[in-house]
Write a structure and sequence with these properties.
Layout (H helix, E strand, L loop, with lengths): L35 H6 L11 H6 L26 H13 L15 H12 L16 H14 L1 H18 L8 H21 L5 H14 L13 H22 L1 H4 L3 H4 L7 H5 L4 H8 L11 H18 L5 H8 L7 H8 L3 H13 L13 H13 L8 H6 L5 H9 L18 H11 L6 H16 L1
Helix pairs in contact: 4-5, 4-6, 5-6, 6-7, 6-8, 7-8, 8-9, 9-16, 13-14, 14-15, 14-17, 16-17, 17-18
Length: 471
């Protein structure tokens, strides 16, 4: 007969190497502030005052260790200095991995809380609008975030320009919780232009560094004329004139204060030189034919060489585009008008057709999605149709490419259109500039100011987002 064995589990004492039974220690919460005697005996202290129970039973003097003093919480914006290499590494890691940069609490005289919020946003996001990458000749991130701000506190016209730029950037991204209105943006912008004009007239050498910086920023600040209710047709002609004026200021200060350009600020206004001969070989044939076909007796005949020089400058953009979407390409696009001769600005402002055609082809390059150059967006979409409408059907053939660019959003597709090569790809060995969409940049900025959002505002944003997505 088959039997079924029943197995019982019995507790078998665990033995150590000496064969003696081992009993696990009873778990208990360690005392961090016990008396010296208990700590020496490695027993738990009940921390009774003035004497613990163990010392009372042993009739010993109960002595407690002094509690370590905590470092006072600093109210300044400076960071604590680590005392050891390991602490320094940990601190650096925390700083580098922090998702949200806290807004500054320090408020210098003459500036209210709104000014400080805008200045904080500039050093967090807006400064990168004028950094086209880590070029060997133009590594300016530190200059934009540190040196520029130092000059701004000493020169009100530069500070107003920075605050106006930040206000425009915030409104461009649609960030609401910082409380920056369009009217406030307008106030900063008007004050910046007025004070800059006065500083130029005064020509005080001590303000030259701030004048250089402001002249660069004003080209971004002035792009409000291409968007919204303030937009007006052919504002690009005034914008071109402003860029040319900046080039003149740069050369004037350079000739009188070469030492200034040997400092770090020199890299801020760096412009890549143009090889006119090499650029001339990249001019599109239809544009060359437009100039070559000018007959004697035509009102534009005396301007033939001027137009050709403009096409050489335009050719530098085509030449650099062959290398892909490099930081140098975007720098050439931004500084393009600073190379324009006064002799070309005049016919453009006179609305001569050939000058407008050249400008329309330049505007195609502003369609490239740069890394953070939000202020140059929408210029082509606004001005190319204005140029086409003004010139009419007679110039339609020369404007086919600018019109086609308005329906092209992808950088590679736009480059293929410009180069006339449907199979073109950016060279893989050259560092390319990433092109985040406006939505991605908006999300980045919203995450940056997330610490300022209230639960109600966050909930309202999500409700609106859901309504837009699913209605």
């Amino acid at each position: 007969m088959e039997t079924t064995a029943t197995t019982e589990t019995t507790a078998t004492p665990v033995t150590n190497a000496a064969g003696k039974p081992y009993h696990a220690k009873r778990p208990h919460r360690k005392s961090r502030t016990g008396c010296r005697n208990c700590k020496a005996r490695k027993v738990k202290c009940d921390e009774g005052r003035p004497a613990c129970r163990m010392c009372t039973l042993r009739r010993e003097t109960c002595v407690y260790m002094a509690a370590p003093k905590r470092a006072p919480r600093s109210t300044s914006s400076s960071s604590p200095t680590p005392s050891r290499d390991g602490d320094a590494a940990a601190l650096e890691q925390r700083c580098c991995t922090s998702a949200v940069v806290p807004q500054p609490q320090f408020r210098p005289g003459g500036h209210d809380e709104t000014d400080m919020r805008l200045l904080w946003f500039y050093t967090t996001a807006t400064y990168s609008s004028f950094s086209t990458g880590q070029l060997k000749e133009r590594n300016v991130d530190v200059i934009l975030k540190v040196n520029v701000v130092q000059h701004a506190f000493a020169n009100r016209f530069l500070m107003d320009t920075i605050l106006g730029l930040s206000a425009m950037h915030i409104n461009h991204l649609g960030i609401r919780n910082l409380g920056i209105s369009r009217s406030l943006e307008l106030q900063y912008r008007a004050r910046a232009f007025e004070n800059f004009r006065k500083a130029v007239e005064a020509a005080d050498p001590s303000t030259y560094p701030a004048l250089l910086i402001t002249s660069l920023f004003l080209c971004g600040l002035s792009t409000h004329v291409f968007r919204g209710e303030e937009a007006r047709p052919f504002a690009v002609l005034d914008w071109m004139n402003l860029w040319k004026g900046i080039g003149t200021i740069i050369e004037l200060i350079r000739s009188q204060h070469e030492q200034l350009f040997r400092t770090r600020l020199g890299s801020l206004v760096f412009r890549p030189a143009v090889d006119l001969d090499a650029s001339a070989r990249c001019i599109p044939n239809q544009l060359l034919l437009m100039i070559a076909s000018i007959k004697e007796g035509d009102p534009d005949f005396p301007l033939s060489q001027v137009y050709y020089r403009a096409l050489q400058l335009l050719g530098s953009l085509y030449l650099e585009l062959r290398n892909g979407f490099t930081p140098l390409l975007f720098l050439r696009i931004v500084t393009f008008f600073t190379f324009f001769p006064n002799s070309l600005i005049r016919p453009a402002r006179e609305m001569r057709p050939r000058a407008l055609v050249i400008i329309a082809h330049y505007l195609v390059f502003t369609r490239f999605k740069a890394n953070h150059s939000w202020w140059i967006e929408d210029i082509a979409q606004y001005e190319i149709p204005n140029i086409c409408s003004f010139l009419g059907p007679g110039w339609e053939d020369l404007l086919r490419l600018p019109i086609a660019s308005l329906y092209t959003e992808d950088n590679t597709a736009l480059a293929r259109l410009l180069l006339g090569d449907p199979s073109w790809h950016p060279p893989s060995k050259i560092e390319q500039v990433p092109a985040p969409s406006l939505y991605e940049e908006r999300e980045l900025a919203i995450r940056t100011v997330k610490a300022e959002e209230t639960a109600e505002e966050a909930r309202e944003y999500l409700e609106n987002y859901a309504a837009d997505e699913f209605c």
